[in-house]
Amino acid sequence: MTKKLLLASTVLAGMTAVASAADLPRRAPPPVFTPIPVFTWTGFYAGLESSYAFTDRQRIITNGTTPVTVGNVAAGRRLSTVTTEQDAVGKLGGTFGYNYQFTPGSGFVIGVANSIDWTDLTKNRFVIGAPLAGGVVGNPAAYRQSLDWLGTLTGRVGYGFDRVLVYGMGGLAYGNVFYDARFFTPGNALQFAGRYDDFETGYAYGGGIEFAVPTDSFLNTFAFGKYLGLKYEAVTVKVEYLHYDLGSRNVVVSAVPGVGTGAYVSRFTTEGNVVRAGFNYKFSGL
């Protein structure tokens, strides 16, 4: 009898414990942790830009090729050195390239970029040489120098601070130059003329800063690419400075038959600076 009572008590106690456990609140499942995406500069990009280009005292150096023309330069009747300064706002430009970031979030970034800008840099310069004997007005001369467009193919090395990229760059510069020299008699009759219009190459170097606009920023409203169905990961805005040098070129300024004799050589130099601002669409990487 005693054993039956003990067994019944044990069963009753177990049922009571089970019932009490059933009344306890259920434990909620642990929350799912979703990591915040880390921004990376790795990927292809392409965009549009505008530019402001300016030069600083470019020189045109003229020398004679015959005793008479050498003497005219030495006497100042033909100026040996003329300086030109140019500046202009570029109409439009474009860029494309690729970046690779070693450590997403913050880390070193390397890349390559190719940009082409319509600079439309043009300068006309009119000068008059030293007066001739008897007070006759000196020989006039007219120069024209222009850089129609400028391209740069540069390597980039920088550091990304999350959505901010600071970088330096350097590499190839190329563009189309136009040089023109015309020398006149004191009576303004064309006496010598020469010109050059062709493709030139050189080098460029500089640096810049770029910012990746957050996806929830109102600035993305102006990213018209999304209205055209363009698929991209981010929109970035940039400002950069470059110094370019396309070297020098000799232009033979030949005599006009029946008006002049001999020839001159005018050496033109194309060197200057450009500030570019624009935006890029960043696409996925490899």
Automatic annotation (TrEMBL):
The keyword Transmembrane does not apply. InterPro entries: OMP-like, OMP/PagP_B-barrel. This is Porin. Keywords: Signal. Residues 1-21 form the signal peptide. Belongs to the Omp25/RopB family. It comes from the Bacteria. PANTHER family: BLL7405 PROTEIN (PTHR34001).
